[in-house]
What does this fold into?
Amino acid sequence: MTVQDALAAAERLLPGQSAPDGAEDPRWQTIIEVAMFAEHEPEAIWPFVLKWGSHEDEDVRAAVTTCLLEDLLQYHFDTIFPRVESAARSNASFGKTAALCWKFGQAKEPVNAQRFDGLIADLRKAGN
It folds into this structure.
């Protein structure tokens, strides 16, 4: 499977419906498939993250956060963070997505963590 295949499969399924409690959610599974490419295909994945990280469905945004956005920031902080910051400041839904992120890899490096934490603090002050 290529990144384009994974993205196309996810686009066909999303936004979809949440799975019943206790059942495997196919939406999360398809987003996990996209995440397999986060380390090596960030440019291909970013538009998907922006689109679905801005969606009204809170569960879709949570899947995007934990499966994709955290990975992109983990591996490509310097490239992706400015985009995250811009999108989060201009789009309240994406701001909520960014505010859910945990820091891993490059995002935990002191300078990067400070930038990330500053954004999250600003978003929370703004009510995101």
Remarks:
- DSSP finds six helices and no strands in the chain.
- The helical segments are 3-13, 26-35, 42-52, 58-90, 92-99, 110-125.
